[in-house]
Amino acid sequence: MHDSSTLLIIHNLKIHFQVRQGTVQAVDGISLSVMQGQTLAIVGESGCGKSVTAQSILRILPRAGRIESGQILLAADSSSSAEWLDIASLDPQSREMRHIRGGDIGMVFQEPMSTFSPVYTVGYQIEEAARLHRTEEGRNSKELVLEMLVHVGFAHPERTWAQFPHELSGGMLQRAMIAMALIGLPRLLIADEPTTALDVTTEAQILRLMKRLQREFGMSIVFITHDLGVVARMAEQVAVMYLGCIVEQGDVDSIFHRPRHPYLKALLRSVPRLDADAETVLEPITGLVPDPLQRPSGCPFHPRCPDFMPDTCDRWEPQLMPLEPSPGQTRAACHLYP
Amino acid sequence: MNPPLSASSPDTVLQVHDLRMHFPIQKGVLRRTTGWIKAVDGVDLTLARGQTLGLVGESGCGKTTTSRCILGGYPITGGKVLFRDPEVGWVDIAQASREELAAVRRNAQIILQNPYGSLNPRMTVLDIVGEPLLINGIRGRSREERVAELLSLVGLRPEYMSRYPHAFSGGQRQRIGIARALALQPCLVICDEPVSALDVSIQAQILNLLDDLQRQFGLAYLFVAHQLNVVSHICDHVAVMYVGKVMESAPTRQLYANPRHPYTEALLSSVPWPDPRLPENEIVLEGEVADAANPPAGCLFHPRCSYAVEECRWKEPELQVMPDGHAVRCHRASELDLTGVIGQAGR
Q1: ipTM confidence score
Q2: Contact call for residues A328 and A253 (beta carbons, < 8 A)
Q3: Binning pLDDT at 50, 70 and 90, where does residue B169 land?
Q4: CB neighbour class for B277 (10 Å; exposed up to 12, middle 13-18, buried from 19)
């Protein structure tokens, strides 16, 4: 796994949140890796820990959250002597971390309206990032911004530069945010539900744009989403999360065509399909996502699982195990698969 | 008593005819009206008992405004909204008397999108679900019994009656909202994006619940949504809106399999399918949704339409009804061969 084309390795990461009622294990020992130039999708329902994982890579966890243990290893660029840099061990406020954030790793958030400051022009805000992360080139930072605005599909970059966020539509603003994330020429782009707030036709535009930019800039993408349709369109590798754990992980084809974990199977069945007729009854997953403060014993999914095995699933927590040899290295955490 | 406009089946509960809702744009200190936003501009809809009509479109297309107008939420600019009330018969919402409106408000209800914002955090479930009962003179024990009955109907435990909304998850809150809407046994329920704030697994639970309730009580649903896959599951008939106008309207299967309007084709193709093996052939529309305050001349969709011809730039198409009941607002409807979902998925 640790070959030269791996860009990011997350190893046994645990993130805890201190809340009044106790400790929430938001992320409970996950391991992942992101290959150079590829897209890893982390998919799951609200509260599964997918956004927290993304935030921890940039060290922008909310105050109550803390990386309890584990490593987040970023492959060093050519200028550094060490091979791997452990982001989890850095101080979030350190110079080094600030260089990585927006430089090596860019981020696109869900709500473009609340990410931009309403009192500065779009161009000024993107230029701020350019001045911080593109210093060595000695080029005019405004020129860099105008170039990037053209890249993300603005026909009149000069005009967009001078506009305020409220003057742009949601889709336009999401393009501007992508420009801001890419201005530091990151090797890794983290996209946290970047199209959830957009209409389907705008979503299609943004997804196509992200794929094109990925080819042009050769970056890797960690794509956080709850929408399985978007996963199918964007990802090469997929990790499915439930209650802070990865329950299944593999290449996109085996995730959709050979799902193993009962949660993933149920999730795929509960998606309403466009070609279904009115007589098709949806198969929802019974029950609710448990309270994170009262995690079920054993497998976190056992209270809702159709294949629940008493005395096994409620007692032992299954480990993420490789399934029979397959080119995609599919792994699932379920007692059904020894 | 208003008679229905046209020949309608005895089951028809709602007829919307040429509904227009224009909002003034006011500028300057004197708040002079400088223009109009034509949020809804000539919408026709018909809905019968036990049926679900889907109203789909992108944000700003006027689907929510249409549903508000139907409930009498706005003073409409023009057209007619006729509702067949089981108590007082046909009512024209815009000209209804106080008594008639009171009856309409018992018999036409709404389920709102945001299960967090639509429940008062300071009221218990009993007060939330029981408020419409209280207003209509049902008090004390009989009110509590009715609330308990409603809660078990939507799959919540009646013991939870004394809890506050914060104690419930998003899906459970949406069930509370549904119980509130059903409290007075309405015949028409407007569902304004009822599942778009919910997770997929919970979404399916709520959709199945809405389906069960419809079968049980013969409810008519006006289902406002932007998620086309959800609409295909629950609706019998779908109307596609774009910038205040209905572009296409047809029975659901027919619309999805054989769209006749280029906008519908593009919408259907943009829905990401949960299957990585399908080829990427979505039609990516260029540009943005037209501005309702300054709509383009001719067909509203022509600036983004890849099939547009000269005629589309200056002549606005009428909504033409095909012999099979498929209504479409496009000059080239009869000559175009558009791809539906079945063709796209290759199955």
Answers
A1: 0.83
A2: yes
A3: confident
A4: exposed
Contact B264, B336 (CB under 8 A): no
Instruction: Name the average pLDDT for chain B.
Output: 89
Between CA B206 and CA A97 the distance in angstroms is 44
* The amino acid at B223: F
Predicted local confidence at residue B343, as pLDDT: 46
For tokens 């535009």, name the residue. Answer: A205
Note whether A83 contacts B: Cβ–Cβ < 8 A.
no
- 3-class secondary-structure state, position A287: coil
Number of neighbouring beta carbons within 10 Å of residue B142 = 10
The token pair that represents A58 in the structure block: 């940039």
To the nearest whole Å, the CA of B282 is away from the closest chain A CA by: 8
Q: Which of A253, A254, A257, A275 to substitute to test the interface with B, most B CBs within 10 Å?
A: A275
Q: What is the pLDDT of residue A80?
A: 62
Strand order through the sheet with A245-251: A105-108, A188-192, A220-225, A39-43, A237-242, A245-251, A331-332, A321-322
- Do the chains contact at A233 and B272, CB–CB below 8 Å? yes
Cα–Cα–Cα angle for B207, A201, A147, nearest 5°?
140
CB-based contact B205 A280, cutoff 8 Å: no
Instruction: Give pTM, 2 decimals.
Output: 0.88
DSSP-based three-state secondary structure for A329 = coil
How many other CB atoms sit within 10 Å of the CB of residue A311?
8
Give the position of tokens 């994006």: B193
Query: What are A251's strand-pairing partners?
Result: A237
Tokens of A126: 């993107």
Over residues B108-133, mean pLDDT: 93
Task: Give the whole-angstrom CA distance, residue B183 versus residue B147.
Answer: 8
User: Residue A169: its pLDDT value, please?
Assistant: 87
d(CA A42, CA B135): 48
Q: What share of chain B is helix, strand, coil (3-state, %, to 5)?
A: 35, 25, 40
Q: Which of A135-144, A262-271, B59-68 has the lowest mean pLDDT?
A: A135-144
Q: How large is the average pLDDT for residues A48-73?
A: 93
What are the residues facing B81 on neighbouring strands?
B16
Q: How far apart are CA B129 and CA B42, in angstroms?
A: 35
Phi and psi at B111, nearest 5°, equal -110, 125
Query: pLDDT at position A59, please?
Result: 94
H/E stretch holding B304 = none
| B306 pLDDT above the threshold of 50 | yes
Res A2: pLDDT? 44
Cβ B93 vs Cβ B107: under 8 Å: no
> In A109-254, at which residue ranges do the beta strands (DSSP E only) sit?
188-192, 220-225, 237-242, 245-251
- Please, is A215 exposed, middle or buried when counting C-beta atoms within 10 Å of its C-beta (0-12, 13-18, 19+)? exposed
